[in-house]
Task: inverse folding
């Protein structure tokens, strides 16, 4: 039997790394609706997704479909899928069709229909979700949610940069986890800010042992797969465990709130004249930046069949040649085991470390 | 100084090639097309491509290589699309930069022009830009563009007329649905058409349907679908589905837009036999031949009162 504590609508988004927390904040504090916080993705999620997807749809399609199906089963009234500049724009329509075909009766909002649309339309959509909507509260909620995403990005970057060198095993992870937990339950801006300050301070105070030849690796690649830990099989975590310092420019903050495509492109003009696709400029720019800053290696991450990122590869190959920087190309689909990835990463890391010892 | 312009016989050349050729020739340039696709061209292209890229792009690289040394510049436009719901696959946005990066050592000269959906431009303006870069006056360019547009229209009208006459035919009619550069490429769709014709079927193409009406129909298929070519393809398929005996959806592995749209299209083509073919760099046609043969058999059997007609 279903017991309704309140009449708020239950909204679910596909999982996307830790960005579910800011989205939850915006939904609960801004829209004043209920958010379905899904547990971390499992093998079951990807199995569900790939079972009902077209075979050579890209991996994010399968991951998000799996998440959405789990969300309906968890009781969501409204499913939301976003739009974008590549195939992502068509995800919603096909996923809606698939979910209908499976017999689920929930509502499906495809944000691709609203992209580039007027503010009025968005407000209408928000009012549809919550008829008692308070627009002022929505604005504050969105603003604070965006701040939360920025804080998460900052702490995450700090964690992956330093955790490889920690003196006491697991000390960084403890702080990081504590921070994420607080983000998951934060209900106002002070809680967000306090948690951020505490985490940053604690991380800065932790003891590090920096090895003689520290290995710095830059991770670049496709929007979803490079950010979503489950999709890239905890790539950055694995690198940190090997003892590397890991950088990743591509995150929601840098992609949406700060760096503009037109501002980044002049920096890569010796390789690229035009905008090559949704996130290719970010990929090429950060790869070139890492190469110029003397990083030891670059890892390029994408899902299988991702056209824009595939088109970045010839440029990365040229950068690799010009700056003598090794690039490891990883193409993800639905894997059952990550042993293959482990082996490749270990070999890559060992190669970088040895290269450093011999040459310098 | 550019005198001869090379046009690779791949990708959008199968759709807009006539327009390009007439435009350049109207301005007084000589146009060279690369030869028809064959196995050697594909192999050349494959050797330079990232192995995951789509088959038509590998073919395109081969065609670019064919033109090296035979022209002063290779025409590689950047065609992003004119509207948000009528974009091209992102590979077209990357095309000039891709060719430049892949053939960096060869230093081939590329003639390019760029337009994109967020710039809100028109076709005529794009050609004006292209002509200006070639050092022609505004008057000359406008004249050449108008002339080229007329020629393209005449070419399209001819194809449309021939196709509508085919619809009257008594033979088995199979509609090939796909991207123009897959359907008409001698090494990809050309082979399939040959097999179909060999079996006594008439072959129709989705890109020989009036572009405007197909585009209009496609908005009933989907409001948000972002790709122009898939719109023309699905629109034409929806327009013709009741006038043909079977639809053969042809796509090249791993085409991004097709992967999603064809899945949807099959759901919408419920009342007509559909064969979904995905092409890759196969070295033989025996496998596809068998599949097409059984598809034709099914169509004929159904027409004679077999499958699916029991309830009638």
Result:
């Amino acid at each position: 039997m279903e017991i309704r504590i309140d009449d708020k609508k239950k909204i679910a988004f596909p999982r996307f790394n830790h960005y579910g927390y800011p989205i939850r904040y915006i939904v609960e504090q801004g829209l004043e609706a209920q958010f379905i916080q899904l547990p971390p993705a499992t093998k079951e999620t990807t199995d569900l997704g790939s079972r009902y997807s077209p075979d050579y749809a890209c991996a994010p399609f399968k991951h998000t479909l799996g998440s959405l199906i789990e969300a309906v089963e968890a009781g969501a009234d409204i499913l939301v899928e976003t739009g974008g500049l590549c195939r992502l724009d068509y995800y919603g329509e096909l996923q809606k069709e698939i979910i209908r075909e499976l017999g689920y009766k929930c509502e499906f909002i495809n944000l691709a229909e609203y992209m580039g649309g007027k503010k009025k339309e968005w407000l209408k959509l928000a009012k549809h979700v919550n008829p008692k909507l308070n627009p002022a509260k929505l604005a504050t909620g969105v603003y604070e949610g965006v701040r939360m995403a920025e804080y998460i990005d900052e702490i995450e970057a700090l964690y992956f940069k330093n955790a490889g060198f920690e003196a006491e095993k697991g000390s960084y992870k403890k702080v990081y986890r504590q921070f994420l937990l607080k983000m998951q339950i934060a209900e106002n801006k002070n809680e967000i800010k306090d948690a951020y300050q505490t985490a940053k301070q604690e991380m800065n105070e932790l003891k590090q042992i920096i090895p003689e030849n520290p290995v710095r690796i830059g991770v670049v690649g496709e929007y979803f797969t490079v950010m979503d830990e489950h999709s890239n099989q905890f790539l950055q975590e694995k690198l940190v465990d090997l003892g590397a310092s890991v950088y990743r420019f591509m995150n929601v903050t840098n992609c949406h709130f700060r760096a503009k495509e037109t501002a980044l492109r002049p920096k890569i003009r010796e390789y690229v004249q035009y905008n090559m696709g949704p996130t290719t400029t970010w990929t090429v720019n950060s790869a070139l930046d890492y190469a110029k800053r003397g990083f030891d290696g670059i890892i390029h991450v994408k899902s299988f069949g991702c056209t824009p990122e595939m088109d970045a590869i010839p440029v990365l190959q040229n950068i690799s040649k010009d700056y003598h920087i090794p690039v490891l190309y990883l193409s993800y689909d639905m894997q059952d085991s990550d042993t293959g990835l482990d082996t490749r990463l270990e070999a890559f890391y060992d190669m970088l470390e040895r290269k450093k010892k011999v040459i310098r | 100084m550019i005198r001869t312009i090379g046009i690779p016989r791949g990708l959008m050349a199968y759709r807009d090639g006539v327009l390009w050729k007439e435009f350049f020739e109207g301005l007084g340039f000589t146009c060279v097309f690369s030869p028809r696709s064959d196995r050697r061209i594909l192999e050349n292209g494959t050797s330079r491509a990232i192995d995951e890229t789509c088959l038509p792009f590998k073919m395109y690289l081969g065609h670019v290589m064919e033109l090296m040394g035979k022209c002063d510049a290779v025409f590689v436009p950047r065609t992003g699309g004119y509207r948000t719901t009528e974009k091209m696959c992102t590979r077209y946005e990357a095309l000039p930069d891709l060719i430049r990066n892949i053939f960096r050592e060869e230093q081939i000269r590329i003639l390019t022009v760029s337009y994109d959906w967020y710039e809100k431009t028109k076709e005529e303006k794009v050609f004006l830009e292209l002509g200006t870069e070639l050092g022609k006056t505004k008057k000359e360019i406008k004249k050449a563009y108008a002339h080229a547009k007329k020629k393209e229209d005449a070419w399209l009208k001819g194809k449309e007329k021939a196709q509508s006459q085919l619809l009257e035919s008594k033979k088995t009619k199979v509609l090939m649905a796909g991207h123009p550069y897959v359907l008409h490429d001698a090494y990809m769709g050309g082979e399939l058409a040959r097999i179909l014709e060999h079996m006594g079927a008439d072959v129709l193409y989705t890109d020989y349907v009036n572009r405007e009406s197909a585009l209009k129909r496609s908005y009933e298929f989907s409001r948000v679908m972002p790709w122009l070519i898939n719109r023309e393809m699905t629109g034409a398929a929806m327009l013709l589905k009741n006038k043909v005996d079977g639809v053969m959806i042809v796509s090249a592995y791993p085409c991004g837009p097709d992967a999603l749209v064809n899945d949807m299209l099959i759901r919408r083509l419920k009342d007509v036999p559909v064969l979904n073919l995905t092409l890759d760099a196969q070295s033989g046609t025996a496998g596809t031949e068998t599949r097409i043969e059984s598809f034709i058999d099914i169509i004929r059997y159904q027409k004679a009162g077999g499958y699916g007609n029991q309830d009638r």
